[in-house]
Design brief:
Blueprint lengths: L22 E4 L17 H12 L6 E4 L6 H5 L4 H16 L5 E4 L2 E3 L3 H21 L4 E4 L21 H13 L4 E5 L6 H6 L6 E8 L21 E6 L5 H19 L3 E6 L16 H18 L3 E5 L5 H16 L16 H13 L7
Parallel strand pairs: 1-2, 1-5, 5-10, 6-7, 6-9, 7-8, 9-10
Antiparallel strand pairs: 3-4
The chain binds zinc ion (ZN).
The site of zinc ion has 7 residues, from loops.
């Protein structure tokens, strides 16, 4: 069932040459219709990111694409009909009440425009898959709202309505016949929804680095999948204060190694900028520069595997961190020359991550050669 480890010799980053630097951003003004007022997950997040890209030199190298709305079927592959109806009803209620927000839980508001925005977000995720698999772009960014990685098969929660990346993965299987998809989640929070949706599924490998003991309280190392999916959920929880060093270890020692062995046909990154050192909701310490280095790493992995990468926006609540980081990431996405020095290096591994790595090696012994 698992790849043959005897032939594994790891990705050769020193010889990686970027074959394509074509990058697009999928965006639609409907994403601003999810009007959450002064909630930290508000439309200003997207407005500042779009502005930052357009005002920077890098903006000249980026194509902007507008997606269609998704079909309800694209959502129903991952979510229950009752959940879909609940969102539709809550948006209707918000609209009937003169624009007052309806709440799915204390964290998750629904406005009159949420239904339209959520359909457009899943539509954007499906469009991203089409673009990557057509080979038009090696790198596709989805600047979506509402975010998605906390949305479970039957519950919208944690600022998330529908699980955009999960719907994209299912769409890639149904519409494009993909067999192996890898979702890497570098948001500060654990993507409990994505994990739940694919927990017993060996076709979608889900791996996440996140701040331990933080919302939503899941994502421990021993959550490794069930049934056929045993071994295909890989969590790397880190303690408050962890930053570039821990993300380097995770990227180089965990993601790159497993990707090389699993050989996904599509790499999806749930990207949250709430792991940034300036983020007001989290306590991780990732630098702006480092977000760019992670993009370089993902491009190197994708190039080695001959596949494309789709980044879907999840969290990130410092407007300053969002604008700086998206420009850094776009710059790394369009770079035409591969610079091994631009990769995250596992220099001086922090003690806590060394222990974590050993735990992970023990947990996945005989499954993944980490
Ligand atoms: Zn988050």
């Amino acid at each position: 069932m698992f790849p043959d480890h005897d032939v594994f010799d790891g990705p050769n980053f020193d010889q990686t040459i970027f074959t394509s630097s074509k990058t697009c951003v999928i965006f639609h003004n409907d994403y601003l219709l999810h009007d959450t007022g002064s909630h930290p997950e508000n439309s200003n997040r997207l407005i500042v990111m779009k502005d930052a890209i357009e005002k920077h030199e890098v903006g000249k190298s980026i194509d902007w694409l507008q997606p269609d709305l998704c079909e309800e079927a694209d959502i129903l592959r991952c979510h229950s009909e009752a959940q879909l109806e609940a969102i539709k009803f809550a948006a209707h209620k918000a609209s009937e009440s003169g624009g007052r927000l309806a709440y799915l839980d204390p964290d998750t508001p629904v406005s009159s425009g949420t239904w339209q925005a959520a359909l457009r977000a899943v539509g954007g995720a499906c469009h991203a898959v089409d673009q990557v698999l057509a080979g038009t772009y090696q790198t596709v960014w989805g600047l979506f709202r509402p975010p998605g990685h906390h949305a479970t098969p039957d519950r919208s929660m944690g600022f998330c309505i529908f699980n955009n990346v999960a719907c994209a993965a299912e769409y890639a299987r149904v519409k494009h016949g993909l067999k192996r998809i890898m979702i890497v989640d570098i948001d500060l929070h654990h993507g409990n929804g994505t994990q739940d949706i694919f927990y017993s599924d060996a076709g979608v490998l889900y791996s996440s680095i996140h701040q331990c003991y933080h919302y939503p309280g899941t994502g421990f190392i021993d959550e490794t999948g069930s049934g056929d999916g045993k071994g295909y959920t890989v969590n790397f929880p880190v303690l408050a204060g962890a930053g570039d060093g821990e993300f380097a270890i995770y990227g180089r020692e965990v993601v790159a190694q497993i990707a090389w062995q699993f050989k996904p046909e599509l790499l999806i990154i749930s990207i949250g900028f709430d792991a940034h050192m300036k983020d007001p909701l989290g306590s991780l310490d990732v630098s702006t520069e480092y977000y760019g280095k992670m993009v370089t790493l993902f491009r190197a992995i994708a190039t080695e595997l001959g596949i494309g990468v789709f980044y879907a926006l999840e969290g990130g609540y410092s407007l300053e961190a969002l604008s700086e980081s998206i420009v850094e990431c776009m710059t790394a996405s369009v770079a035409t020359h591969f610079d091994p020095g631009g990769l995250p290096m596992p220099y001086r591994p922090p003690i806590s991550s060394q222990d974590m790595l050993e735990d992970l090696r023990t947990t996945f012994k005989g499954i993944w050669n980490i």
